[in-house]
Structures are given as structure tokens and as C-alpha cells.
């Protein structure tokens, strides 16, 4: 299976540097332009199925990039729930939640966001859904996922057998796609952040 992973275009929240998580923001004008660029880059690739996070920024990105007929919205593709940190920037978090922020920086894998989701449960959620998507796809199909930076990082970690340890070793840019070839026992990164 060919797998195209697309991070949604930018939102005002991204431009302001806030943790968005489950906050349901629309694309900014820049984000819409990024998606138009992705659509142009992918115009010669036949995509058989598109799976999308139900959050507005991902839905709007998918609507710009792909035709309607092959889209399926999947709850498990949502971004991690940052809990009380949602809507805050790094500076505000480090000031208001200094102890928790220090724990996060020292051991993100075991961290649970205050009133939010834990990294391990987030990773498990995303790992399960990518396995389901792979199992119901044919080897010759091209599948696209439109989701979030954290979700895409988790998918790449799972497919490359990096586990959660490699999560922050991967940069995923807004309004860009990455292409992987996925097989039963391995995956190969063909393109990243195009």
C-alpha cells in the first residue's frame, strides 16, 4: 500500500504558537493556500481512499485537496488531547504549569497532560487505527490520511517500528505530505514534507 500522510494547513492557533489539540479551529488563509499547493502536487496520483480526522482543520484541508467521494472521518485520527494546556503557548505553559512542563520535557513518553490524554494512550490509539486501515486496504491501493502533526508522527513511528521513542525525531510541516510504501513487515519513507 502507498500511504500519503498530510498534515492539515495552518490555523490562527498555529500562527500564534498555541497547543491546539482538540480545539476545533478552521484553517487560516495561509493554511488554505498550503492545501491548494498540496492538491497541485498530488494531482497526478490516484488516491483510492482518504481517511480524515474529524477536526475542522483536517476536514477543511481534505475538502480542498480531495474530491468528496472517498473520504471517511475517523475519531482516532484526532490530535492528542492536551487538556488544560490547550489554547496556551509554550511560555504560558512553562510559567503556569512549571512542574508538569518539566516532567513533560524529561519524560514525555510517560506523561499525561493535566485533564488530558497520556502519550502512551494516544500512541496506542493511533497505532490501532493505522493497523485497521492497513488491514482493510489492498496492497496496490494508495491511501491518504489527513490529520495532525502528533498523529502523523505516531503513525510514522509505528510503521517504522521506532515506537514512541522516535516521536520527536520527526518533523511534520503544515500543509505538506509524506509518502510511505507500507508492507506486511516493514515500511519505507519515499518522500517527507513535500
TrEMBL record:
Superkingdom, taxonomy of origin: Bacteria
The entry's keywords: Glycolysis, Isomerase
Active site positions, chain numbering: 8 (tele-phosphohistidine intermediate), 79 (proton donor/acceptor)
Residues involved in substrate binding: 7-14, 57
A single cellular component GO annotation: cytoplasm
EC number(s) on file: 3.1.3.73
InterPro entries in the cross-refs: His_Pase_superF_clade-1, His_PPase_superfam, PG/BPGM_mutase_AS, PGM_Phosphatase, Ribazole_CobC
GO terms classed as biological process: cobalamin biosynthetic process
GO molecular function: alpha-ribazole phosphatase activity
Pfam families: His_Phos_1
SUPFAM superfamilies: Phosphoglycerate mutase-like
PANTHER family: BROAD-SPECIFICITY PHOSPHATASE YOR283W-RELATED, HISTIDINE PHOSPHATASE FAMILY PROTEIN-RELATED
Protein name in the entry: Alpha-ribazole phosphatase
Lineage: Bacteria, Bacillati, Bacillota, Clostridia, Eubacteriales
Amino acid at each position: 500500500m502507498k500511504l500519503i500522510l498530510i498534515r492539515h494547513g495552518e490555523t490562527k492557533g498555529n500562527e500564534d504558537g498555541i497547543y491546539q489539540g482538540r480545539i476545533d479551529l478552521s484553517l487560516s488563509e495561509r493554511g488554505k493556500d498550503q492545501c491548494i499547493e498540496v492538491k497541485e502536487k498530488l494531482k497526478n496520483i490516484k488516491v483510492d481512499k482518504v481517511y480524515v480526522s474529524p477536526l475542522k482543520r483536517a476536514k477543511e484541508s481534505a475538502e480542498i485537496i480531495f474530491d468528496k467521494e472517498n473520504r471517511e472521518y475517523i475519531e482516532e485520527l484526532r490530535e492528542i488531547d492536551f487538556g488544560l494546556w490547550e489554547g496556551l503557548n509554550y511560555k504560558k505553559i512553562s510559567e503556569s504549569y512549571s512542574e508538569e512542563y518539566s516532567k513533560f520535557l524529561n519524560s514525555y513518553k510517560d506523561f499525561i497532560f493535566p485533564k488530558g490524554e497520556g502519550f502512551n494512550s494516544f500512541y496506542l490509539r493511533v497505532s490501532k487505527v493505522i493497523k485497521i486501515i492497513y488491514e482493510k486496504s489492498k496492497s496496490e491501493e494508495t491511501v491518504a490520511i489527513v490529520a495532525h502533526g502528533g498523529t502523523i508522527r505516531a503513525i510514522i513511528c509505528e510503521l517504522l517500528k521506532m515506537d514512541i521513542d522516535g516521536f520527536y525525531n520527526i518533523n511534520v510541516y503544515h500543509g505538506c505530505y509524506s509518502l510511505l510504501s507500507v508492507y506486511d513487515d516493514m515500511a519505507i519513507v519515499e518522500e517527507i514534507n513535500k
